[in-house]
Sequence to fold (152 residues):
Amino acid sequence: MIPKAFFVTGGKAIGKVSKMNTFDLALKNAGIANCNIVKVSSIIPPNCEETSPREMPTGGITYAVISKADGEGERITAGIAWGFARDKRLGVVAEAYGSMDEAAAKRMLDERIMEMANTRGIDLCDVKYRIETVDVPKGSYGCAVVALVYLF
Fold:
């Protein structure tokens, strides 16, 4: 089973009930709440094309690289970076998440995606980023989610 395409989406939320409910709301805001998400690792196959986000079938098994940050009373950030080998034989996806600002997340993503490329001996081109940051008030739950969603 090799994906033919992917899209990148993100969402964030603040809630009062629980971390789980806030995660669910962040997924809704990302447009993927009605999927059964299976977290996968970080390789984009050859000839897998990036496309715009689309509605996913309700209840469908959906494979995705997920970056998720939870927090209470702090700034949280989730992000991914993705890029392809110059020869297009594969792509890689890096994740970063935690209590940090967007600039710190981007630095972390840069380090991680370059290490992944170096490990594989590939020259990356056209690296892209998606980062979601939210300031969570005290007494509330927050969640930021970024997902690279595969399409078959």
Observations:
- The beta strands are 5-15, 36-39, 43-44, 49-50, 61-71, 75-85, 91-98, 124-135, 141-151.
- The chain has a mean pLDDT of 97.
